[in-house]
Amino acid sequence: MSDTKNGARSRRPPDTVPGRMKSRLLKEGPLGVLFAAVFVALFYLWGEELLPRAAGRYGQMFPFVGAVALTLAVALFLSEWFGFAGREVRKVRLAARDFLFLCILALTLFFLAKAVTDILPAAPTPRGGIIPSRIYVYLIPFPAFAMVVRILLNSEVAILFTVAGSVLTAAAAQGMWSTLLFLLLSGTAGASRSGRVPDRYKMLWAGVLTSPVCALAAVALEFAFHGESGIVWAGIFGALNGLAAGPIALAILPVAEYAFGYTSDIRLVELSSTSHPLLRRLMIDAPGTFHHSVVVGTLAEAGATAIGANPLLCRVAALFHDVGKIGKPEFFFENQAGGSNIHDNLTPGMSRIVILSHVKEGVRLAGEHRLGERIIEIISQHHGTSLLYFFLEKAQPMIQERKASEEGFRYPGPRPRSREAAIIMLADTAEAACRSLRSPSSHEIEEAVTRIVNRAYLDGQLDECDMTLRDLSTVGKAFSRVLAAISHSRLEYPKAPVSRIR
Ligand SMILES: [Fe+2]
Ligand SMILES: [Fe+2]
Fold first, then answer.
1. CA-CA to 148 of 20 to 30 Å: which in 185, 273, 343, 459?
2. Ligand 2 mean position, distance from CA 322 (Å)
3. How far apart are CA 469 and CA 1, in angstroms?
């Protein structure tokens, strides 16, 4: 929980623990210096027009002095830029994996910028004119890269990437002001139009919407900095750049998802299909758990929509949250279908081992099926460090005789670290609690949901996620609404006389 009194979102990031900050610096510091060194080495080998100016008098005496100085400057720029944002903005706190991904995108842009400005020659036009080689900078596919960053990471990182990436790419492409401003504008346009793209059609449409902005920006900047001679081709190249952004981003996404474990909205929609092998196994081997997961997904989606979290991620992660039960479905109440309870013949200690293991097993299966880190994290956090209340009660005599401890009946954690994980934890418990009520009234459902939310909060399960009290109350109301609709008493069908059935 980020605050406890007024419900306003905390401005303080939750993990400013000195140890954690230190480990972040250790991870990202060397990566930043390494990336800067690679970048400057490329300039040194390939960017003659930039480095001699940077090296100056000392550079001619000691050729590497200029390269070292530029490495230092780029490393400082990156560490200051991302360090400042990472400390102050929660969503910009990058993992080493994210940093590496952004560095690879920036290096790819470097090569593309060099390719379009150095390799493509000045070409004759059909009307006997000439396309100057500088006009090709309007073909650098920066909007597509900004779209990918927005889709796989978030809008805050996309803004930072657009600014830092524009500076580095423009420097590689002859360092013109017109290029820098075009990249800034086109990258921002691409990122801003690709917020929620759950299918390929929306992705292509985002590129179509980016196209006029790129064309107008190219025409205006070409005219302002170089005169009217190249404005037509600048406009054409700018428009093509925008149109190509969708297909290029679509080509990059699966590669990035496979290599870095990201999960885009398009991938989430694919995973939600019941033809997924893991969901099919859940449906056949543990039908009770499958039904429970679908209801948890509906609740979590409603809760996430109510507070502006990610409803698609909630619904899909909820479908997979209990896949770890596939191996031993009969040990979980929802699959016992009113038959004998296997736990009656087991000690609470034995039951505890089987029940707790479903989280670890779920993480293993999710990794095996490459569900992506966002879903794997939610599976590992969906019980937090909460207590197994039912078996704890059964084990009370052993605890009193000091043969067992209460702490042994807790899930190993970690506790939810995102709003989506917290919503799924609450939806999971709320569904199970309301299932045990017989024909509950709306008021009884509301009371049960409030009790569950309060218990999770008081037990400290929501301490590591960014949920405010207002969020909790809103999520609870959304759950109650859906649960009341699901559990409303149904009209009884009149029984037809046997003679009429025949
Ligand atoms: Fe579970
Ligand atoms: Fe569950």
1. 273
2. 5
3. 8
Q: What is the pLDDT of residues 273-298, one digit of tens each?
A: 888 999 999 999 999 999 999 999 99
Of 213, 236, 261, the position where a domain reaches its end is 261
As a whole number of angstroms, the distance between CA 271 and CA 263 comes to 10
Q: Is 240 helix (H, G, I), strand (E, B) or coil?
A: helix
State the pLDDT confidence band at 51, using cuts at 50, 70 and 90.
Answer: low
Q: Which ligand is nearest to the CA of 358?
A: 1
In this prediction, residue 138 has a pLDDT band, given cuts at 50, 70 and 90, of: very high
For 393: left if phi > 0, alpha if psi spans -120 to 50, otherwise beta; the answer is: alpha
Q: Are residues 141 and 249 part of one domain?
A: yes
Q: Which domain holds residue 167?
A: 94-261
Instruction: Report how far ligand 2's centroid is from the alpha carbon of 406 (Å).
Output: 22
CA 286 to ligand 2 centroid distance, Å:
12
- Look-up of token digits 């016992």: 336
Q: Residue 27: is its pLDDT beyond 60? A: no
pLDDT in tens, 248-263: 999 999 999 988 889 8
Q: How far is the C-alpha of 469 from the C-alpha of 257, rounded, in Å? A: 34
For residue 107, is pLDDT > 80?
A: yes
What ligand has the least distance to the C-alpha of 291? 2
Domain membership flag for residue 231: yes
- Report how many domains make up the chain: 3
* Euclidean distance between CA atoms 366 and 6, whole angstroms: 38
Global pTM value: 0.78
**Over the chain, what is the mean pLDDT?**
82
Residues 84 and 43 in one domain: yes
Higher pLDDT, 61 or 349: 349
Q: Give the Å distance between the CA of 449 and the centre of ligand 1.
A: 18
pLDDT higher than 80, residue 401: no
Residues 31 and 76 grouped into a single domain:
yes
Residues 137, 194, single domain; the answer is yes
Give the pLDDT band of residue 59 (cuts 50, 70, 90): low
Q: Which of 474, 483, 484 is nearest to 453 (CA)?
A: 474
Which residues crowd ion ligand 1, with CB under 5 Å?
322
CATH number at residue 425: 1.10.3210
Distance 410 CA to ligand 1 centre (A): 13
CATH number of the domain within which 116 lies: 1.10.1760.20
Pick from 20, 165, 156: which is nearest to 90 by CA? 156
Same domain, yes or no: 304 and 163:
no
- Does some domain include residue 120? yes
